[in-house]
């Protein structure tokens, strides 16, 4: 199973200047819980936005740079190659960025989305989730609180 996992604001904003415009600790915990122990596929810029590789996950980085070889990562040149090197009988996660999400939408079986209830300036966007192709199977709202400056909703979509 291929799962896209993302956090996006009301207008599908993902981030700006290779960083998230929000800090939601519970979303980070959910991301960690869902992706730990799995292969995570990402673009080079997403990988480089991390201070260090994420623990207990196999990093598959897509890059057009021929000499790109960060320690502890598998580097491939296409999404198809990234999917091909992952175990077939395990869930794998597309974790961004915007270009990888756009390329991967047709490959995914499930989307785990954190919808942040605010708008932000952004330069990276999540593709539209077409309701003709996707069924919202679960939705869990979280109000803003002292640790979360914005309300958000966890949404799980399944391909129809």
Automatic annotation (TrEMBL):
EC number(s) on file: 1.5.1.3
Domain of life according to the entry: Bacteria
PROSITE patterns in alphabetical order: DHFR_2 (PS51330)
One Gene Ontology MF term: kinase activity
SUPFAM superfamilies hit by this protein: Dihydrofolate reductase-like
Keyword annotations of the record: Kinase, NADP, One-carbon metabolism, Oxidoreductase, Transferase
Catalysis performed (reactions): (6S)-5,6,7,8-tetrahydrofolate + NADP(+) = 7,8-dihydrofolate + NADPH + H(+)
Pathway: Cofactor biosynthesis; tetrahydrofolate biosynthesis; 5,6,7,8-tetrahydrofolate from 7,8-dihydrofolate: step 1/1
Database matches in InterPro entries: DHFR, DHFR-like_dom_sf, DHFR_dom
GO cellular component: cytosol
A Pfam family recorded for this sequence: DHFR_1
Domain DHFR: 1-159
Function according to Swiss-Prot or TrEMBL: Key enzyme in folate metabolism. Catalyzes an essential reaction for de novo glycine and purine synthesis, and for DNA precursor synthesis.
Name the UniProt record assigns to this protein: Dihydrofolate reductase
Organism encoding this protein: Flavobacterium crassostreae
């Amino acid at each position: 199973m291929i799962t896209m996992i993302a956090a996006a604001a009301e207008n599908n904003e993902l981030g700006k200047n290779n960083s998230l415009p929000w800090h939601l600790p519970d979303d980070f915990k959910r991301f960690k819980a869902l992706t730990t122990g799995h292969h995570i596929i990402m673009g080079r810029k997403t990988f480089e936005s991390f201070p260090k590789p994420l623990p207990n996950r196999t990093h598959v980085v897509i890059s057009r740079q021929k000499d790109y070889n960060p320690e502890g990562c598998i580097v491939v040149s296409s999404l198809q190659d990234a999917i091909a090197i992952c175990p077939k009988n395990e869930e794998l996660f597309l974790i961004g960025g915007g270009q990888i999400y756009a390329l991967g939408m047709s490959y995914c079986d499930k989307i785990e989305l954190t919808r942040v209830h605010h708008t932000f300036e952004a330069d990276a966007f999540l593709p539209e989730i077409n309701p003709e192709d996707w069924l919202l199977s679960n939705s869990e709202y979280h109000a803003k609180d002292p640790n979360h400056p914005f309300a958000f909703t966890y949404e799980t979509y399944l391909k129809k």
